[in-house]
Amino acid sequence: MCSFNWDILFFLKFFSLCIMPEFLYAQNTCPEISQQLLKYGFHRDLLIRVDLGTVDKGLESCRLAIKVHLPRGLYVDPYELKSLQQHNLTEALVIADEVDLEVPEYLATDSSVLVYMKPDPECITCFKALLPLHCRYYRPSESNGKIPVVLQSPEIMIHCQKSVFSVNCLKETETEAPCSQNNLAVCHWKNMKYKMLSKELELQVPVGLKYHLPLVCAITLITTGLCSYFILSALCRYGPIHCSMRH
């Protein structure tokens, strides 16, 4: 009769019930990202939500940031970001020397925005941020009244006092970036792998049609002429200027 080692059986049961689930959990803690566009027209809001998928206590010492890459047809208003930060709504930095808010799409350049995520009160492992986006004006189109603008996949970065995530979730590269919007000291951020839950985001930007150009020019000239006439008439009648029309 073959002997059976009950100690080995106990160890196998313990490994399958306790150690194996923890091992599998550690292998599936890479973040999940979802993005959603809110509002319509030229002024949109980009809602970003990140689920880190881990409840490690060391997570409290971590800061999470998302680098959003914007094509030249989109921009973020730095003055608007400062206002939102004062109200503790959004914390972000535009990675560019200067952002010209007036230039059209064909004269602009690509840009990036570093968004510092805030904890989501509805989920203990989640972070979220709301980034206001604005569309630039495009050249008139021949036939289609809308032009698609595609948002690239963002980069996710984390800065922790101690190791929290599995090595499988961390990339080999690091990024040097400001520690926060108020603290411009350089921190070393770990680039992370993630799973994108939402589909590729595409905006439909309204543009003018070329065959409307003569009509638009005519209406603009007529409106400008009428407004100029009424302003001059009001100045001559009620203002201190003495016009030849009164003599």
UniProtKB/TrEMBL annotation:
Function (record text): Stabilizing subunit of the glycosylphosphatidylinositol-mannosyltransferase I complex which catalyzes the transfer of the first mannose, via an alpha-1,4 bond from a dolichol-phosphate-mannose (Dol-P-Man) to the glucosaminyl acyl phosphatidylinositol (GlcN-(acyl)PI) intermediate to generate alpha-D-Man-(1->4)-alpha-D-GlcN-(1->6)-(1-radyl,2-acyl-sn-glycero-3-phospho)-2-acyl-inositol and participates in the sixth step of the glycosylphosphatidylinositol-anchor biosynthesis. Probably acts by stabilizing the mannosyltransferase PIGM.
Spans through the membrane: 211-236
Family, per entry: Belongs to the PIGX family.
Topology of this chain in the membrane: Single-pass membrane protein
Protein name as catalogued: Phosphatidylinositol-glycan biosynthesis class X protein
Subcellular localization: Endoplasmic reticulum membrane
Keyword Glycoprotein: yes
Organism whose genome encodes this protein: Pseudonaja textilis
Pathway in which the depicted protein is active: Glycolipid biosynthesis; glycosylphosphatidylinositol-anchor biosynthesis
Principal location: endoplasmic reticulum
GO biological process, one term: GPI anchor biosynthetic process
This protein's UniProt keywords: Endoplasmic reticulum, Glycoprotein, GPI-anchor biosynthesis, Membrane, Signal, Transmembrane, Transmembrane helix
Pfam families: PIG-X
Signal peptide coordinates: 1-26
GO CC aspect terms: endoplasmic reticulum membrane
